[in-house]
Amino acid sequence: MKGNKLLCAGVMLALAPTAFAEEAETGRALYEANCASCHQFDGGGVPMMQPELILSPRANGDIGGVIDMILLGSAAVEPGMSDYSNEMPPFDYLTDEDIALIASYVRTNFENAGGAVTAADVHERRKRAGLEGTAQPE
Question: Using CA atoms, how far apart are residues 55 and 65, in angstroms rounded to an integer?
Fold first, then answer.
């Protein structure tokens, strides 16, 4: 019995990097499809138009910062607190899982070390913002 548990644990550990790599790849693809046209493929942004994501205080800060930015767009920033001319649209129509994958990609790439985001984290922020029911069905 103990051998079966060890075998099962070993299989799970062996598969974990593959699952993480697949999530990271999906996060990158979602970022490229939804974010890169403004924030650029390298996260460099566009001066005075769209913020860069490299070493981003928001990406490295509280987990809710990036989630709220994706869900609410520029409405997540207090009026008068942005130096950028373009308004970011809300992406509240994306699923919680898709937003989590994008947020995780941004928080773990572009020299950021903010960590991963889960769909449950996004669901909680969506609920807090009164946006339940805005996502496309999964």
Answer: 14
